[in-house]
Design goal:
heterotrimer, A mainly alpha (182), B alpha+beta (311), C alpha+beta (172), A: 182 residues, mainly alpha, Rna Polymerase Sigma Factor, Chain: A, Arc Repressor Mutant, subunit A, 2 domains, globular, C: 172 residues, alpha+beta, three-stranded antiparallel sheet, 9 helices, 3 strands, elongated
């Protein structure tokens, strides 16, 4: 499905075909979940934020400018939802403790897989990044986004997005260097 | 959210600014001068033109300053009746009225009355003591050409707001009565100030509000047409003098009759003053002036202020 | 040289300038670029944990929400959240501003009227109110010499006759 397919699906949704929205959800849910996970660091929170993001997108479909990229628009909504959830959680400390909880099943689940040990190391390192830095890194790593596109989702200047990305990489690298497992 | 906060802060600051501006206390000091005799001499036998100059004023061009509060217990006619009754006067003339605006802070206010060829500078030094009591020092002199002038009256009193005090004193065989009342100026009053003294550093403002002493004066002639038609009235002017003391501009703020205004301007334009010396140098001055044209003052027993007045 | 850039980057607070530094040097300099390259697959593994593939069916949770929303509003009303939220915010700001203005104006009006109401004298019983002076004579001089003052009061005004000290009061 390409952008034109998105346009057709959106048109169908706006015409009243609610079930057509399922195609959009199926197409983008992995990306939205990854984004939410990178910001929130917790599976439950990420799923809630992703669902909320899709719901908001559905409600605001008629305001989407079809000349623009739907994925970026959706990701921007997802990011806002994540920020709302972070505000609700009040402090990043809660994020860390949740990250620690989340790390346990990940490490235990991935122990037999290559690179599992590294995940266990990365979790505390990612705590050192800010939400924006995590998101910038995730979008860069997973979506291959450049600074300009990341800026569109973070609603900031391109230079700011570049700085977030750079800082995220530096911090992560520094943390990895200090760790003998890597 | 940030935008909302910014707008809220803006409105908050705006309200505070309004509060601060409105919180300025403004007062009007109404002064009236009367002259009474037991001999029957009346003002009309002298010059019927009285010129009052003052530094700060509340003045509404559409209303005659001397006819302000023309009715009621504190009106000119009521006061005349009381004075005549208390002091058993045969004749009583109302010479002038002035409403001087006081901002609650200024330490001295100036008024000068010119009539019968004599100039009487009056200095008022008001101070608030508490919410309703004002301390007032009054200094009345006669201009003799010398700096100090002839001392006439120097007194210090305390009085309450809206409660007039009438100071009576003898001078040259006649009795003069200076009535003073301090009232609070409402926002509407303050807004009606015709001209505010010029902006600038505080000292300069104080200096400009000092009245220069007249060096050469010309009494306005009573227009014949007005005399015949029994037209009395007033002219309010704002006068500008240069550093040489010459009158360089006369602005008419209002008048009850155009012929009276014309006569007043023609005369005042010829005046010269001794300029005020500030920090060793002569300075420009600007001040208010009212010229009252009177034809006839009735005896105190009668009602009203005499012949028909043009409003 | 790289050290200088690193110091500059640490010190400069402006993101735009930091970004320029990144573009000019950190991304181009082989040594500095090396510092921000790491094992991508490690990061990818973290950022795309396996559970995301497992949690690939969000629609069953989203669909009921959409339906209940539509039922609540009886018909689909798009944009109810975005612009209405904005409008609500502005209404809140406007209400707060209106309260501020009304409060300030009311305060000013009350101050005005509080001055017009009679002073403390009126709250006293009649006998005591006389004791509060309407006027006080502090000093008096006539022609530069000390003078006497005679006060006579009526309900409307206080009349003070100032006479030279050798004379008696009054006109006759």
């Amino acid at each position: 499905m390409g952008p034109t397919d998105d346009g057709q699906t959106i048109a169908r949704c706006l015409a009243g075909d609610r079930e057509a929205f399922e195609m959009i959800v199926n197409k983008y849910q992995a990306g939205v979940l990854t984004l939410a996970w990178s910001v929130l660091g917790n599976r439950t929170e990420a799923e809630d934020a992703a669902q909320e993001a899709f719901f908001r997108a559905y409600l605001n479909l008629q305001y989407f400018d079809r000349a623009k990229d739907f994925k970026n628009w959706l990701y921007a909504i997802a990011y806002k939802r994540c920020l709302d959830r972070i505000r609700k959680l009040k402090t990043e400390k809660k994020y860390r403790s949740r990250m620690a909880e989340a790390a346990a099943p990940v490490t235990s689940g991935l122990e037999t897989e290559p690179g599992a040990g590294e995940s266990a190391v990365l979790v505390p390192l990612l705590e050192k990044l800010t939400a924006k830095e995590r998101l910038a890194l995730s979008l860069s790593m997973n979506e291959g986004y450049a600074a300009a596109e990341i800026a569109g989702i973070l609603h900031c200047a391109e230079s700011t997005a570049r700085v977030h990305l750079f800082n995220a990489k530096r911090k992560l690298r520094k943390g990895l260097e200090g760790n003998s497992h890597v | 959210m940030k935008k909302s906060l910014t707008i809220l802060i803006f409105f908050g600051l705006l309200s505070l600014a309004c509060l601060w501006a409105l919180a300025e206390e403004n007062y009007i000091i109404e002064s009236r001068l009367f002259r009474g005799t037991n001999s029957g001499d009346s003002l009309a036998q002298g010059s019927p033109v009285i010129i009052t100059s003052f530094s700060d004023t509340w003045f509404v061009p559409s209303k005659a300053p001397s006819s302000a509060s023309s009715a009621g217990p504190n009106s000119v006619s009521a006061m005349k009746a009381e004075l005549a009754n208390i002091y058993k006067l045969k004749t009583l003339d109302h010479i002038n009225s002035a409403q001087i605006l006081w901002d609650g802070k200024k330490e001295s206010l100036n008024e000068a009355i010119l009539f019968e060829g004599n100039l009487y500078p009056i200095h008022l030094y008001p101070k608030t003591l508490d919410g309703r009591t004002i301390s007032l020092k009054i200094d009345v002199r006669r201009d003799t050409g010398l700096e100090e002038g002839e001392k006439i009256l120097n007194t210090e009193i305390t009085l309450n707001l809206d409660d007039p005090v009438v100071l009576g004193f003898p001078l040259s065989g006649q009795s003069y009565f200076l009535s003073l009342e301090v009232k609070k100026a409402s926002g509407a009053d303050v807004g009606r100030i015709a001209i505010k003294p010029g902006e600038g550093e505080l000292n300069w403002r104080q200096a400009r509000s000092l009245l220069p002493q007249p060096a050469f004066t010309v009494t306005p002639t009573y227009p014949e047409k007005c005399k015949k038609e029994n037209i009395q009235g007033w002219v309010a002017l704002y006068v500008f003098t240069n550093i040489e003391g010459k009158v360089i501009r006369v602005r008419v703020l209002g008048s009850s009759h155009p012929d009276l205004a014309k006569s007043a301007i023609e005369a005042i334009r010829q005046w010269t003053y001794r300029p005020v010396i500030w920090k060793g140098k002569p300075i420009q001055s600007e001040f208010y002036m009212t010229v009252d044209f009177r034809l006839h003052e009735q005896s105190p027993s009668a009602e009203g202020t005499g012949k028909k007045q043009d409003q | 040289m790289c050290k200088i850039y690193k110091i500059l980057y640490a010190v400069i607070p402006i993101k735009k300038w930091k970004s320029a530094l990144i573009r000019r040097h950190f991304e181009r300099c082989p040594r500095c670029a090396e510092e921000i390259i790491f094992k991508d697959h490690v990061v990818r593994a973290f950022f795309k944990p396996d559970w995301i593939q497992e949690a690939s069916d969000q629609w069953p949770q989203i669909r009921p929400r959409i339906i209940s929303h539509e039922v609540q509003f009886q018909r689909f009303r798009p944009g109810i959240t975005a612009s209405q939220l904005r409008a609500r915010r502005w209404k809140w700001v406007a209400t707060a501003a209106a309260f501020l203005i009304v409060g300030t104006t009311g305060f000013f009006i009350l101050r005005q009227y509080s001055h017009k109401t009679p002073g403390p004298e009126s709250s006293l019983p009649k006998e005591l109110s006389v004791a509060v002076p309407r006027v006080q004579m502090i000093s008096a001089e006539l022609g530069g010499k000390r003078a006497k003052a005679y006060i006579y009061q009526t309900p409307t005004a206080s009349f003070i006759w100032i006479a030279p000290s050798q004379e008696t009061g009054g006109l006759r």
